[in-house]
Amino acid sequence: MSTISPSIQTFYSREEQSSFERGRSNALNSRITGDGFTSSEVEAVTDPLPQSWKPPRSYERCPISLLQTGPFNYEISGRIVNFSNNPQDQGYHSLVVSDGSGAIAVKLYYGKASDYQLLLGQRVTLWATFIANSAQGSSGNIPFCASSTKIYPGRNIATHITLYKDPPDSDGHRILRCPLDCNLRDYSYLPALMTLKAYLSTGYDMAEGKILVCVRSVGPRRTVHSKKRQCDLDMVDVSVFDDTATCILKLWQDKVHSAKTWIPNQTILLISKPTCREEDPQSGLGLGYNSIVEVDPEFPDADWLRNKVKSMKIKQSIYIPFPVDIWDLDLAIHGPNRALFTIADIEDQVRNPEAEPDFTGKLNVIIVEMGLMEQWRKRTFCCFECCGMPVYANKPVAICKNCDMRRNLSPNPRIIGSMIDESGMIMAGKLVWHDDAWTQLFFGGKSSDAPIANASETDLVEQSWEDLTIFDTAALRDIEERLLYTRITLTFGWSSQLERLCIMGVEW
Ligand SMILES: [Zn+2]
Ligand SMILES: [Zn+2]
Questions:
Q1: Is the pLDDT of residue 446 over 60?
Q2: From the CA of 234, how far away is ligand 1's center (Å)?
């Protein structure tokens, strides 16, 4: 305990003395340790978060835009939209908290910096006893930030902060997501919002400027040596995009943790005034003192981007898993209503608004182009998508370079180039294959030669498309040559959600 107390003394600032003394006298009944601090007091300073805190007086709940300066007891709820730790270890974190109505600059004093794991977008509640103008709090010109306060958890028992970890389906997760400067009741547009392309070309030069982007991928955490600061710094590259451009957002030091909570192709960021190197805006964006990051905001433009991302993802993704739970595969392949379609019939049916949305049928085609050897040479025979990035290998399992997770891969649909019938052509790279259909394609053709039907069925159970990945080049070339110009019957299902033709079975 004696090793801890000197650090407490250094935080024993004059302005907080009275409330701290009050805290001590309240705790008179607790065991007094040798250095004069009760164990609960030491804990409160060194580990303020786990302690359950009860408000010692009544606090008024107040939107941030309506806070009055002066000695008032306020309960303030919002989300962290920016923060920085001080490299000189001044003993506090600087936070900016927004509730949509306004923002407040918060100095959060700590026993040690690691007491708090701050995350962008995290919901917080503050219990404050004094509100100052933000200019007094030296927070400069952070947009919509008119006030500031100081929080001393554990030292001044009248001020407190709670950082929430809300589970995804909870009310806490849903609330406080309206962006700053956004009139949801009569919404037409968000002031100063521009496309990423516009921001990177000239927008960064303007006084105001906001971008609304989706996270594409989060790179591995890296350590970079800073010559200027003479130390190693943590950093991570986050790839972000909208419908006009893609760029890198660099996060440094304690903001690296925030990126780890972001989900590729899902997390939306509304960023006001991201920093940008004027001589080279394409090199990427960063977060500065005046930046504001609103994570997963709720307003019409964000809904629009979410939908846009969904359709862009389907168009661009190299791997789409076969959709489960749409069709009864056995019924579609062997059932009584097996309609034979041509490629043109399928196109008509997709455009027909009265047609059944996820219809299935049979399709008789000739493979006129193979890409098996090409994919093998490019080492892209199998593919998957992890962390928003493609994972390729010539093996059915691979380790994602980003998250180090072992992933099961599927055959690359580009193994087949194109297929035709008398009515049209299908570029096979867009098809979504069931694993069983691949196995039937590669090994089913031999069953017609097999004298005993049962034996061939046993073969099918034992063989799998994965066997191809241990074949040598000559054997693979044989398979490619055997498949080229053969006629096969596909059982397909049209997925209206994916807008893709899904192949569930192959017959010879
Ligand atoms: Zn950290
Ligand atoms: Zn991954």
A1: no
A2: 8
What tens digit of pLDDT does each residue of 249-288 get?
999 988 999 998 999 889 999 999 999 887 777 788 999 9
Whether residue 353 is found in the same domain as residue 425: yes
Query: Rounded to the nearest whole angstrom, what is the distance from the C-alpha of residue 401 to the centroid of ligand 2?
Result: 7
Instruction: Please state the ipTM of this predicted complex.
Output: 0.54
Which of 139, 272, 280, 286 has the alpha carbon at shortest distance from 208?
272
CA of 224 to the centre of ligand 2 (A): 22
In a domain, 402, yes or no: no
DSSP string, 426-476: EEGGG-EE-HHHHHHHHHGGGGGT-S-HHHHHHHHHH--GGGGGGS-HHHH
Is 105 among the domain residues?
A: yes
Confidence of residue 231 (pLDDT cuts 50, 70, 90): confident
Kindly state the tokens that stand for 90: 């001044």
| Rounded Cα–Cα distance for residues 152 and 166 (Å) | 23
Gap from CA of 317 to ligand 2 centroid (Å):
15
Cα separation, 227 vs 242, in Å, equals 34
Cα of 216 from ligand 2 centre, angstroms:
12
User: Number of structural domains, the chain?
Assistant: 3
User: Which of the ligands is closest to the CA of residue 402?
Assistant: 2
- Calculate how far, in angstroms, residue 258's C-alpha sits from the geometric centre of ligand 1: 10
Do 288 and 434 belong to one domain?
A: no
pLDDT tens digit string along 479-489?
Answer: 999 999 999 99
For residue 182, being part of any structural domain is answered with no
Query: Distance (Å, rounded) from C-alpha 477 to C-alpha 372?
Result: 8
Residues with CB under 5 A from ligand 1 (ion): 254
Any domain includes 393: no
Structure tokens, 450: 């097999």
CA 262 / ligand 2 centre spacing (Å): 13
Report CA(251)–ligand 2 centroid distance (Å): 19
Determine the structural domain holding residue 140 and report its residue range.
1-176
Q: Are residues 274 and 339 in the same domain?
A: no
